[in-house]
Amino acid sequence: MHILDTPEPAARTRSPAAALTLRRLVKRLGAGRSTTAFELHVPQFDAHRGEFVAIVGESGCGKSTLLDILALVSRPTASDAFTLGDPPCDLRRIWGARDHGRLARLRAARFGYVLQTGGLLPFLTVEDNILLPLRILGLPPDRARVREMAARFGIDRELAKMPQTLSGGERQRAAILRALVHDPAIFLADEPTAAVDRARAVRIVADIEGLARASGTTVVMVTHDIELVRGRADRIYGFTVDAGGDGVVRSRCARVEAPADRPS
Amino acid sequence: MTGAVGIGTLTPRGKRAWLLGPALALADLRHEWVLTACMTLAVAAVMTPILLLLGLKHGTVEAYRTRLVQDPAFRGLEPLRSREYDARWFERMAQRPDVAYVVPNILRGASSVLLGRPGLERQEFVDLLPTTANDPLIAANGARPPAEGEGVLSFAAAEKLRAAAGDVLEMVIERRAGETVRAALTVAGVLDPRADPIERLYVPFALAEDIETFREGKAVPQRGWTGTTPVPYPSFDRAYLLLPAPLSPADEARLTLGTGFTEGGRIDRAELAAELGLTVPATEAVYRLRVAAGAVQRSSLGTVADQLRGRGALILPQADGAAEITATSAAGSHRHPVAVVGLSPDPEPAERAGLPATPWPAFSSRNAEVSFPSIAQALVPSELDIGDAGTVELRFGNLSAGGSAGVPLRVAGRIDGDRLIVPADLLGMLRTGVDRRVVYDPERRGLVLAKAGNRGFRLYAATIDDVEPLHRALLEEGIDTVAQLGEIRKVAMLDRGLTRLFWLVAVVGIAGGIAAMVSSLYASVQRKRKDLGMMRLMGMRQGAMFCFPMCQGVGIAGMGAALALGAFLALAHVINTSFTLGLPPGSSLCHLPAGHLALASVITVTVAAASSFVAGLFAIRIDPAVALREA
Predict the structure, then answer these.
(1) Of A41, A167, B317, B378, whose CB is crowded by the most CB atoms within 10 A?
(2) Is B574 in CB contact (< 8 Å) with chain A?
């Protein structure tokens, strides 16, 4: 099932506006008891408005580290530029000032998050979960709109239920709905297909892609399965890991030149 | 759907945003209702026994205190030894704020009377106590103060006599063997058993005092009880000596040695004339004896007379004090302030010294038997207008404070000069009225020495807490009293002991409660790390994050407190209905005032809030990245 049945091509024809921009970003993680020291280098990362960007990699490649940075929960060690939106909001400066309140407000207003298992709060009904971003922003709960969107997602009968009574797919759709309800600029999905079977996973990715196309929301999706996003993503970023002789594992994140027309 | 939310909407501060933390916290409590119920029960399980213990402590101590407070027997103080207390002492005591009531008591030996039904052989000894209006012992034990001719019986007395309120009894008061008087007495009421364990009769103070007077051998004319009448003894402040020849210095010195007089010496006859208005021949040697403080009595004058035996000495005792006479005749009433001089010389030396003749017996320093009519006379200065009155009324002493009662004196004659001349015995008796109560009894036509004071008292402190300080204060005055100090201290000890016990249990309980609360909330935060991380990731404010465990703690504590209150009230009811024995009516074994209950709830919620503070701190430190990590 597609989230949006009538994708609009408008986003593609417009001149690309920056949504997330990273330049020469470095994140260093010190050696822990069971982990070695790790360095993530991102020379250049761009996500434009309305684009579907995929970050692909196996575990341990720095994929999670990059996701934390993009999700505004982890502070980059160094960078030449780290901006959000257009006109750009300088995240380097906000991190520099350690303004966690501002970061929280940016997360609440500009981001929608979908986690591997959805990340719905178990003590709220599906509807209240979906309305939560609006409540965090202090906006009035637009129940009619939620109902209408839920109907399009096919979970309108599930709204009054508690999340644990839903199937994995329904839960994931509710999570997607929650991530969209406040019209965020960036839709961040972390392995959203981890908990479902392949067929469903393909459909979910298609939905997410359609969403980016339709609403102009920038979609950043993290996955370990490049096949899921091949041919759909506007950009794909991958990692090159180099276990250096000095005991530091270095990973470089760069754009993968994917054949866009290869069938999935 | 449209694009990004503008910068301007990044800082929404609606009213709803404030409620988000509590709303989510309560939603979580409702969702995990089993856990919530467990924690609520845990709080109630800690609080209920503490409340019960506090209620028992409060109830027990209060009940005991109430009994002590309600029962005047515990507030009473009675002197250990008998001593005389004057009216001023009673006034001073009655005015103390820590004294509820004080009544004079009669001598212990005088307080036993026989009581029985008239015409019946059977009579019982009862102990007699005086009472007046507002006696708490009477009022708090179901009786009313007895009026004249009435008495209130203690329970034991009523039982022994088989008497009830309204019965008429006969009281027999025995003095010496065979010397008895009788009085009818109506029973005004019977006291509760707790008031007085012994057979006791409470009568109006006047009757008790009359019985004491009768027992002392004196007459009580108003009741027709015969006996002696105490006549006031004469007392003096000064004495003048007239001698035909001067004394040797040694003899002069002896005048103030062991005589009661403290200073003395020869004076000029002009001084005598100025002080007494008496002119004596130049051949007379005049001495004046005085006392620094107090007065001398007849015996002192006797000692001086012995020292001067055979020397032809005239002793003229005098008293300090103002006097006035009132003469009532057909022409009207005349009042004159006048200086009074006592003069009762032996005729022979009086003639030698040229003193005016006095138509009354000479003053004897030994013989106290003087008939009052013979000394109720005066020589009135001729310059005073008394009309044709045959008698004048003399008042002596501190006239501005009332002075003595008016004593009618026969006008024995008129005299030159400005001094009123009266018998020395009369002046001395009036002088005694300055220190003691001397009244004129018109029926007996004589002066009577009234009772100086009372031999004991019955006193009730305002509260039981005043008993011990009052006991100490009286001890400082030299009055050792018997009070229920032991009982009162027992309550204080019970209170202290139970308070300690309560705090011990409460501290252990509260510490356990805090530990349980902290660990539960901490564990809850730990368990919800991912959910809390998700909330952080979604941009929830720190305040709302902090609120989350805080509201849960307060919510659980509130419900726990409500449950504990309910349990306490139910259990207290059970306890109070099962154990009612030995408690005064209206008091309960387990009871807490509403204020205590409210305070306990507030403390519980505050402690819970403090406990959840830790959990709150932990909640705001959760890294939002955990939501992304822990799948």
Answers:
(1) B317
(2) no
From the CA of B630, how many Å to the nearest CA of chain A? Answer: 9
Q: How confident is the model at residue B608 (pLDDT cuts 50, 70, 90)?
A: confident
The answer to whether the Cβ–Cβ distance between A85 and B4 falls below 8 Å is: yes
| Neighbouring-strand partners of residue B220 | B225
Cross-chain CB nearest to B3 (options A124, A162, A185): A185
Q: How far apart are alpha carbons B618 and A167 in whole angstroms?
A: 32
What is the model's pLDDT at position B20? 82
pLDDT in the model for residue B11: 38
Domain boundaries, chain A: 18-255
DSSP state of A28: E
The CA distance from B592 to B463, in Å, is: 22
- Cα A262 to Cα A258: distance, rounded to the nearest angstrom: 9
Verify whether the Cβ–Cβ distance A216 to B537 is below 8 Å.
no
Q: Which residues contact A261 (CB under 8 A, 6 or more apart)?
A: A231
User: Given A68, A119, A183, which is nearest B2 (Cβ)?
Assistant: A183
Q: Residue B343: how many CB atoms within 10 A of its CB?
A: 27
Q: Which residue has the tokens 């000095």?
A: A246
Rounded Cα distance, A83 and B462, in Å: 83
The closest CB to that of A136, out of B11, B531, B540, belongs to: B540
Structural domains of chain B, with CATH:
15-67+488-629 (no CATH), 81-228+453-479 (no CATH), 235-318 (3.30.70.120), 322-430 (no CATH)
Q: What is the nearest CA distance from B591 to chain A, expressed in angstroms?
A: 41
Name which of B552, B628, B629 to mutate to probe chain A: the one with the most chain A Cβ atoms within 10 A of its Cβ.
B628
* B33 inside 8 A of chain A by CB: no
What residues does B285 pair with on adjacent strands? B243
Among residues 517-536 of chain B, which lie with CB inside 8 Å of chain A? 530-531, 534-536
Residue matched to tokens 């027997």: B73
Burial class (CB in 10 A: 0-12, 13-18, 19+), A254: middle
Predicted pLDDT at A63: 86
- pLDDT of A15 above 80: no
Amino acid code (one letter) for B97: P
Round to whole Å and give the CA distance between B74 and B103: 16
What is the DSSP code (8-state) at residue B358? -
* CATH number of this structure's domain A18-255: 3.40.50.300
Residue reference for tokens 């059977």: B122
